[in-house]
Amino acid sequence: MLKKKLLFFLLLLVGTKINCETLKQFIRIGVVIAKRSEDFFTIRIDHQKYFFLLKEMTNTTLVLTNSKQEIEYCLKPIHFFEYNSEFYVHSIAVQCKSFLEEKRNIQLGDLVFIETTLAISKEKEETKKIQREKIIVHPIDLKEMIYVESDYFLYGQGNEPNDPSYNPYFYHWNLENLPRISSFYIDKYEVTNFEFLMFCKKSGYRCPKLLYYLSEEEKDLPYIYATYKDVEEYAKWSKKQIPTEWEWEFAAKGGLSVFFNSNKLISSTLFEEYTSDLQNCNTLEKWKGEAPKPISVYELKDSNFRGIVGMCGNALEWTSSFFMPYPGNRFKNDFFSGKFFRVLKGGAFFIPKEYAKVYKRIIGGVPLFDKDPVAGFRLIIKTK
């Protein structure tokens, strides 16, 4: 009888140990408190240490498990925020590497975990996060540049299907159709006449003659006669890059962090259409019968929330992107299909304010990239 009791005790002990080990595969970090859509959830984080741990962990996957400790759902954190001394994360459901065919729906109150090995490996890391300077001065062309931190990005607009800027996923986005833009620095101001002249003199590039006869008032005006080839050559000389249209738009209006922080969960616009108060934008309407003209980049008042100036009118700006339909869309006019033209952004002093909307796309490079002196530019440098 004693032997049977001892054997039973040993089996119970072993069974208990196995269950504990199984439970230790995951660490609870929070609970689901809100369901925003079929794939979009808000989680309240249990403890501050988990909040900051998750923020440091790139490509983290949160999991929901069943009673057998099998993973049923995986969630991708996309935005962290603190409110009233509590910590939260907005997350989107993603497909797990291994998942059950039959899954229950995520419910409010469901517990959220991370795998133990992920947490331990991160806590043992001794590498420190690089703290980027918000503003730098580029060593070659001496332009001020502003840091733009990586984020998920909702591009275009979702209300006008006939507009080339239409994004069919604008109100139906998920991580599969939402790009994440890597961090970069972008010029605070458009490249000026004087700066382009200095580039020509230092690099030996052929400049328009008009730049050699600049008045004092003209030196700080944006250089608005650049062909795409001009911009490419300036970028090579300065060791910078031409922004894609998504990078330009992302710098202008921000990513999902801006959206979440504004608490615009349901809105017809989601993001502001202009980077500044329209009264500060140098568009055609500003001149009211006077001859429209560009303004010194240092006198403009249209600074956006990042401190970037001149993205609302003044000079059109080149991007490296081809004028092609956004993913999931197509142009009705096949003339625009294919890699024939580049995208210009930002509006200008000589065209209506409609074209200064942050998502608007204008055609550049007609008929040839090196023979279309239609725009100005600003450049970026990507961070590692």
Give the uncertain stretches in residue-range form.
1-24, 119-130
Order of helical and strand elements: HEEHEEEEHEEEEEHHHHHEEEE
**Any idea what the shape is?**
elongated
Distance between the termini: 69 Å
What does this protein look like?
This protein has 384 residues and is α+β, with helices and mostly antiparallel strands. It folds into two domains: 25-124, Beta Barrel (Thrombin, subunit H), CATH 2.40.10; 135-382, paralog of FGE (formylglycine-generating enzyme). Helices cover 21% and strands 21% of the residues. It is built from eight helices and 15 strands. The protein has a six-stranded antiparallel beta sheet with strand order 3-4-5-2-1-6. Strands 7-8-11-15 form a four-stranded antiparallel beta sheet, with no helix packed on it.
